[in-house]
Amino acid sequence: MGEKAGRRRPGPLAGLLVAVVVAAGCMGGGLDQGEPEQPRPRQSGQPASPGSDTNRADGTTSVAEFKQDFSDAVGIAERYWTDQFRSSGEQFRPIRRVVPYTRAGEVSCGGEGLPRNNAVYCSAGDFIAYDVNWSVAAFRQVGDAFLFYLLGHEYAHGVQVRLGIRYNFTIQKELQADCMAGAYIGDNVRSGTLTLADGDLDEFREGLLAVGDDPDQPWFAEGSHGTAEQRTDSFFRGYEKSLDACGLS
Fold it and tell me: For 18-27, what is each residue's pLDDT tens digit?
């Protein structure tokens, strides 16, 4: 996936594993309290984060490109939601910051250190935090679709807070965020801001079908995200029908 106009040429949308990675990382969608703690200095003997010269196996994607793609995804999300709020006569306040981290506990939300291999929106602190090593590894394997889906899903949780949306069960919040992420991607594709390559939607569909809660997990359990079928349906409802399909009104 790439931004049609701007600094970079459009890139392909690869998505077979993106939903798998995002589903594993989203920590319930939004913790209730906290500010991001300042990252602690890296201790000797701990591995450093990947450098800009670390390339994907096929040699086509660098960490520098990861940083640029992530910046693009944040910028597009801010513009998208600003436009959506403006069309309703409201002013949108962008999420305050996006915080990368490299170690478990390096960033806290509400006094709880965030684990590795994770991404989360912290509502009271109004920030998104993500494990940069995990994200870069997924970027190398999956491609830039991972970043747009990840950012779109977590940003949706920030929008839910701004709209005052509350649900009794986690699964309701998560499936709505999937729908909103689908709308964010679909609307930007339709506007020409983002581009897709042939077969990309099929890859997304296959990837989404590969994920979901354990069949034995009760739908009302805390942390439930939905079955593979539910998540696929929610994402593509948003992608095809925009935000009208996401139950925001």
Answer: 433 444 446 4
Residue 31: beta bridge partners? 122
pLDDT beyond 50 at 52: no
CA–CA dist 71, 75 (Å, integer):
6
CA atoms of 16 and 206, how far apart (whole Å)? 6
Beta strand pairing status for 2-3 and 119-122?
Answer: unpaired
Selection from 80, 72, 55 nearest residue 9 by Cα: 72
Q: What is d(CA 233, CA 215) in angstroms, rounded to the nearest whole number?
A: 17
Report the SS3 class of residue 112: strand
Q: Where are the alpha helices (DSSP H) in the chain?
A: 18-25, 63-87, 132-142, 145-162, 170-190, 200-209, 228-241
Q: Are 220 and 35 in contact (CB under 8 A)?
A: no
Tokens 């291999």 locate to 117
- According to DSSP, the β-strands at 112-113 and 119-122 are unpaired
At position 79, the amino acid (one-letter code) is R
81 closest CA partner among 70, 71, 69, 93:
93
Phi, psi of 11 (to 5 degrees): -115, 165
Q: Mean of the per-residue pLDDT values for the chain?
A: 77
pLDDT tier for residue 3 given thresholds of 50, 70 and 90: low
Per the listing, tokens 């459009």 go with 10
CB atoms within 10 A of CB 249: 7
Sequence-ordered list of residues with C-beta below 8 angstroms from that of 117, at least 6 positions apart, any chain: 24, 25, 131, 134
